[in-house]
Design goal:
Strand order of the largest sheet: 4-3-2-1-5
Number of strands: 5
Helix content: 40-55%
Largest sheet: 5 strands, antiparallel
Number of helices: 4
CATH class of one domain: Mainly Alpha
Shape: elongated
Order of helices and strands: HEEEEHHEH
Strand content: 5-15%
Radius of gyration: 29 Å
CATH architecture of one domain: Up-down Bundle
CATH topology of one domain: Butyryl-CoA Dehydrogenase, subunit A, domain 3
Distance between the termini: 65 Å
Structural class: alpha+beta
Length: 211
């Protein structure tokens, strides 16, 4: 029962992490314009994401523009896109594989060994998915930080971390942790020992000596 609870907890965490990775990928707030230092505070906030750039006016109106051409994008942005999309696809595969191996599901009940292996395999896929998202978000965040502290970067073009990065970090951590719980939910095999041999009891002495 304990392994079943750990398995369910791991699946819920990994699934929530996968949903968070999808949300982070779709959000345009991967980096936002910085108004620190000598920057003049303007009436709009600028955001850039993996797929579009947006400007939010002080009135709350948001205007977004999708990037025109894939070939005009930086190679690092294309690689970040590829990693996040691969993470989402792997997470989707991990959901189906892990559900098949869940103890609460009826499928594959006739072979418990294969069922447990499916759950562990689903956990491994979730871990790989979370690692891909973690690498993508950390790489993107490192580029933003390096450009921010670069003295040659104009002050009015500096960006800070957006909310999508924080969601991506939290989601990837959830996916990795949930996948680890799924891998640990497989019960260990009990060591089998050969049955102990019984020894005949010594006949109780009657206290009589025979000649």
């Amino acid at each position: 029962m304990a392994s079943g609870g750990l398995q369910l907890l791991g699946f819920v965490m990994a699934f929530l992490g996968w949903i968070g990775i999808i949300i982070s990928t779709a959000m345009p707030q991967w980096k936002m314009a910085s108004y620190a230092g000598d920057n003049i505070v303007t009436a709009q906030a600028l955001y850039e994401g993996l797929w579009m750039s947006c400007a939010m006016q002080s009135t709350g109106q948001i205007q977004c523009k999708v990037y025109d051409s894939l070939l005009k994008l930086e190679s690092s942005l294309q690689a970040t896109r590829a990693l996040m999309v691969a993470s989402i696809i792997l997470g989707l595969v991990g959901v189906f594989v892990a559900v098949t191996g869940m103890k609460c599901m009826k499928c594959m009940e006739d072979d418990q060994v294969k069922k447990m292996r499916m759950a562990v395999f689903g956990g491994v896929i979730f871990i790989i998915s979370g690692l891909a998202a973690l690498v993508a978000t950390s790489w993107y965040g490192n580029r933003v930080a390096r450009a921010f502290y670069d003295p040659f970067t104009p002050v009015n073009t500096r960006f800070e971390f957006g909310s999508a990065l924080f969601i991506g970090w939290a989601a990837s951590s959830l996916a990795i942790l949930g996948g680890s719980f799924l891998c640990c939910s497989c019960p260990r095999r009990e060591t089998s020992y050969p049955p102990t041999r019984g020894y005949p009891k010594n006949a109780s002495s009657t206290g009589k000596d025979y000649v």
